[in-house]
Design a protein that fits this description.
The complex is a heterodimer of chains A (about 475) and B (about 290). Chain A is mainly alpha-helical and about 475 residues long. Chain A has 16 helices and two strands. The chains are: A mainly alpha (about 475), B alpha+beta (about 290). At the A-B interface, helix 5 and helix 6 of A face helix 1, helix 2, strand 3, helix 4 and helix 5 of B.
């Protein structure tokens, strides 16, 4: 008996599968083997943590009645928001037809799907009765609850994302285009409902307010772009599939978005702190004090401000680091900063106790130390995410699909396969930033130069 | 065991096999398969498979008409002596786990300094009274001090019920907020939404209020008792009558008289939760 896959006849017997697997492992480069091995170990750690966190009521988490949401919620928020950011960044190409964002699409879709699945996995481990949630959300819906809406929108988003990925790999462009538009719309709605889960709580002054949902969307974009920056810098470095257009289009596009979103996030964080300090609002002022000078201060100043904002902005500002490795470093730092930001955000809402319940609440701030089980689950989540994406990068066709090259997303009615010159966006943006009477634009960085040259020469499939 | 199943005065420890954190970790992996299997069998069916008769109308004895009552508490901080008997009675009555951080009711000591500072303590929830210790505020700087019995406020506008994604927590017609343990998913959202810190997640152990670990639990005003014409356990054992419970629909009830004749206030009124628990002698900033 044999199985036919992709035109090849395969023997499905265990011995043949093992032999093929062994041959594949032997053919894998040593560095990749080490990387995969590390990710497998992380997955193993995560699996151990997951098993221990499954039985309801087992006190294996570091949470308490006054600090019920720990790093599992933080990790859930991190991945759930990142998936939206990935989709938002990519939608600039797939929905709005900006060519420089088109190369992001295939990788973004896989990353977004993986990120969402990882988020769902983490929240399932945090809930004591996850299966009840699925049935309960359907059989006894609660439209007054932002958490219910969050489930609805992330559920719909999952369906659209799966459709997007499926149609992308099967070449169903009509369905694909609609799926891209719908997933981009839900990618905005979903993080706002997640923000509302926190923002609606009047009992938690730091989270409470209409500011929280839009802040989630803003930081979602930063988070997604940072992840794309890491991936595309590696694609460019290791000359993986599509690295040419990654270098000329995707990396400048990611740099552009990072350069916009990092200062925006600085403003978001700065105003959040200013509002917290103003007027000594009960709960809010104390939470802000915890962030600025209290137990969360090291995380905030080192992780959020220096690592997550100042250093990446510096790397993007300094002409000598306006390179692909510079972008890689900036993206990594931003990604770490976002993770720290989620930790600080989730903790700050709970750090001011609502009561001195049972005398177990330390004063003036509630304490929470994640348990080994929680840490293991988070390590496993990152391991799973990295492992599956690495395998996808290695074994899935990551070349841009014909929908892009045919100009389907650029609004042309007929395929445009003949090379045509395209305008590089960088000079246009610089002109817009400086204004007609502004100073002469600085010379663009080497990558932008390359983009201009490539565009002038006319990339295969480029469209006006 | 649900609220509806509890028998008055039956305070015997019930529940499954005891599994504290230490025992879990010491027990190793040997017990895992059995426990995981038990979880799947016991807890992972369709939501409320055993509770399809949704408790919007709480199951009560035929004599009890939930629409005829409007329950309320007045906590008298001027008489509470912080003995902690109410906490102990509640734990026994409702099988509340012995852990100090899990309580349906607790007592706090509020000490107000002359400079406006406030120190709130509640060692073990006040179950063993308040042993003399190092004072957070020196005696000469103390402006006032009193004990504050705490419990769920049974809000008329309860934020905890709005946020529940599966409608597992609800308000009875007579104004008591309950949790359907067969429906609760253990997400903890209601814990975060409660401005009074009145809810907790039930740990696995020898005592579980409803026989189910991993769900949220809270004060029920001893619904199984009040629906049979009895007082909540905490009010019944209070030696100084600092917990005044009754029906606001009855103008002659102790609580109606207290609400009429005493100057009372609710906690955190600015949040618009409209608590059914009122306090006498509470000073402004201490909440």
């Amino acid at each position: 008996m044999s199985v036919h896959v992709a035109g090849r006849s395969l023997d499905p017997s265990p011995r043949a599968v093992l032999r093929a697997l062994g041959a594949e492992v032997a053919a894998t480069p040593r560095a990749l083997k080490l990387w995969l091995g590390l990710l497998l170990v992380m997955c193993g750690i995560g699996a151990g943590g997951a098993v221990l966190s499954l039985p309801p009521g087992w006190e294996v988490l570091g949470t308490s009645p006054s600090f019920e949401w720990g790093i599992l919620i933080t990790a859930y928020v991190f991945f759930a928001i990142t998936t939206s950011g990935l989709c938002l960044a990519s939608s600039l190409g797939t929905v709005f037809g900006v060519e420089m964002f088109l190369p992001l699409e295939k990788r973004h879709a896989i990353l977004a799907l993986l990120s969402l699945v990882t988020a769902f996995g983490i929240i399932a481990l945090d809930l004591h009765y996850p299966v009840r949630m699925v049935f309960g959300a359907v059989l006894s819906p609660s439209p007054l609850s932002p958490m219910w809406w969050m489930g609805v929108f992330y559920g719909i988003y999952l369906v659209f994302l799966v459709t997007e990925v499926w149609s992308m790999f099967t070449g169903r462009w009509g369905i694909h285009r609609i799926a891209c538009i719908l997933s981009s719309i839900t990618a905005v709605l979903a993080p706002t409902t997640l923000g509302a889960v926190f923002g609606i709580l009047a009992a938690r002054s730091f989270w409470h307010g209409a500011f929280t949902p839009p802040a989630m969307v803003a930081t979602a974009l930063l988070s997604g772009v940072a992840l794309l920056g890491i991936v595309f810098a590696l694609v460019h470095h290791y000359r993986l599939t599509g690295h040419e257009r990654a270098g000329t289009l995707a990396i400048p596009a990611i740099r552009l978005l990072l350069a916009i979103m990092l200062p925006v996030t600085v403003l978001v964080v700065a105003w959040q702190m200013m509002f917290g300090l103003y007027g000594a609002v009960p709960g809010l002022a104390d939470a802000t004090a915890a962030i600025l000078v209290g137990p969360l201060a090291p995380l905030f100043w080192i992780g959020r401000v220096v690592i997550g904002l100042a250093l990446p902005i510096g790397l993007l500002l300094w002409p000598r680091t306006r390179t692909t490795p510079g972008l890689f470093a900036a993206s990594c730092l931003t990604f770490v900063g976002i993770a720290v930001d989620r930790t600080v955000f989730v903790a700050a809402g709970q750090v001011v106790p609502n009561s001195a319940v049972a005398g177990t609440v330390s004063t003036p701030f509630a304490e929470y130390v994640p348990s080994l089980v929680e840490i293991a689950v988070v390590v496993g989540a990152f391991g799973f995410f990295g492992l599956v994406y690495t395998l996808a990068e290695r074994y899935l066709p990551m070349d841009e699909h014909r929908g892009h090259l045919a100009g389907a997303f650029l609004g042309t009615s007929a395929p445009v396969l003949a090379p045509e010159p395209v305008l590089a966006p960088e000079p246009v943006l610089i002109a817009a930033a400086t204004g007609p009477d502004g100073p002469a634009p600085e010379p663009p960085d080497p990558d932008a130069d390359a983009a201009l040259a490539a565009s002038a020469a006319g990339w295969p499939g480029g469209a006006t | 065991m649900s609220d509806r199943d509890m028998m008055p005065g039956d305070g015997r420890p019930r529940g499954g096999a005891g599994l504290s954190r230490r025992r879990v970790l010491q027990g190793g992996l040997a017990a895992l398969p059995a426990l995981l299997g038990a979880r799947i069998l016991a807890g992972e069916g369709p939501a409320g498979a055993g509770t399809t008769a949704r408790a919007a109308e709480p199951p009560t004895p035929p004599a009890h008409d939930p629409t005829a009552h409007d329950w309320a508490f007045v906590m008298d901080t001027t008489t509470c002596i912080g003995c902690g008997r109410c906490v102990e009675a509640c734990k026994l009555e409702n099988d509340v786990p012995a852990e100090p951080e899990t309580n349906r009711t607790w007592v706090e000591l509020h000490v107000l300094g002359r400079d406006g500072s406030v120190a709130v303590t509640s060692p073990d929830g006040g179950i063993g009274s308040f042993p003399a210790g190092e004072a957070a505020i020196p005696a000469e700087a103390v402006a006032n001090a009193y004990f504050v019995p705490r419990t769920c406020m049974q809000c008329e506008n309860p934020p905890c019920t709005w946020v529940c994604p599966v409608s597992a927590t609800y308000v009875t017609p007579d104004g008591v907020v309950l949790v359907d343990e067969g429906r609760c998913i253990g997400c903890g959202y209601c814990l975060e939404a409660c401005p009074y810190g009145a809810r907790y997640m039930v740990p696995a152990g020898e005592q579980t209020p409803k026989g189910t670990a991993g769900v949220v639990d809270k004060c029920t005003f001893c619904y199984h008792r009040i629906s049979r014409g009895k007082l909540p356990a905490c009010a019944e054992v209070c030696p100084v009558n600092a917990r005044i419970f009754g029906d606001r629909n009855d103008p002659a009830s102790a609580v109606s008289v207290a609400l009429t004749e005493r100057r009372v206030r609710a906690m955190k009124p600015s949040l618009g939760t409209r608590p059914r628990v009122f306090y006498t002698g509470l000073e402004g900033e201490v909440e």
